[in-house]
Amino acid sequence: MPALPSDPGTCRTRSWWGWGYADAHPDDAECTAMGALLPGTLARPLPIPRVTDLPITRPGATPPPALAHLVTSDPEARAAHAMGKAYRDVIRALRGRAGRIPDLVARPTDDQEVADLLDWAGEHGVAVIPFGGGSSVVGGVEYRGDDHRAVLSLDLTSMDRVLEIDTTSRSARIQAGALGPVLEEQLRPHGLTLRHFPQSFEFSTLGGWLATRAGGHYATVRTHIDDFVQSLRVVTPAGACTSWRLPASGAGPSPDRLFLGSEGALGVITEAWMRLQERPRHKASASVAFTDFHRALDAVRAIAQSDLTPANCRLLDSGEALLSGASHDGSAVLVLGFESATTPVDDRLTCALDLARAHGGRAGTPTADHDAPADSAVSAWRSAFLRMPYLRDGLARMGAVVETFETAVTWDKVPALIDAVRTEVGAAALKATGHRQLPPDPRLPRRRRPLLHRGRRRPTRRRGLPLGRHQGRRQ
Where does FAD bind (predicted)? Predict the structure, then answer.
């Protein structure tokens, strides 16, 4: 049956240089207050960059009249499509070094318009970069090179409809440009949900999740977007292709695997059939504090290797617990959550808490269903989790280095990995800030610069500029 489109319901302005909405960023006073908590930060925040300060040149190509209504060369639109939202990108924007800014931004509304734009670009030597919500942290939305006369950023967010819902098979055909909230709002009236919540959920699209093989917020069972895919439709320079819609198949390599995680290099994902779930009606959560981080790791392993399948099982070390407000006494905090569309989950939470207590954990008061008072540590972490990208940008304006790392390892190597990451990151930061100075920037006050350091070596403190001149690997 057909599904109606949904309006995202907001007229707020997105930040071209940083995360999220422009009006949600910390103001100068909040940035200064955060900087006061860290030794060596700047005396005042770097100014918010202006599009007018960027070296935006005239477009190197002009679309034909038949496509002109889809394309803009507006400087602000071009700047907003120049980079992703990694820490590296934020620093480059603050320093006015946005790299190769696209010449044009196109917003197609259907497959045929995507194909027409690709045909024109191919004939005129124009590079095309698929663009969803712009939350990329690996350089996937950037053009790096000089082999094309112009660059077109292909923004798919006008293709944001749930086109069809199969309630019997509990799946839906969805256009790739649907942002997370827009997608969920269209599924809500049918009592269904995709239930895929990466931290970038509010500002990323279904097509972006597919092109990057995104991982979601949930700890077990369905953790990656791959787990939901039934079929993909992709428009390529050689034509369009649609994989056979199946619940599962053992017939050799899956064609979808060519495009999942491809970062748009092989074609433009325009729509997909996705498996859905009933919206959960039963929820329960709790936090567990640990004085011994290694025992907390053992508790997480015990829960993960049980058949309890928590929706959330996230361990915060003492530093992250303190920054998020989940703990103020140096404890590590385990955040646990369970949910189900059909059966109560209180017993599963109780069993998980028993496993945590067996490893020295102190459990907080569980939160049951929707109306119970929230566990304070869980609530604090959840708020900090959503707010953290904004705070990262505020700290970047103060000269602090704030970034996340993602990796995977088998359980037997977890303690060694944690120790190695802390040691090596500390050593890299020491080398970058303690052994050499970066070229001066006249906008920065002459004051000692910060270093968030958790390695074994303690750096000597020298005057210099904050990190941020490094470039990520070529994609």
Answer: 130-136, 263-269
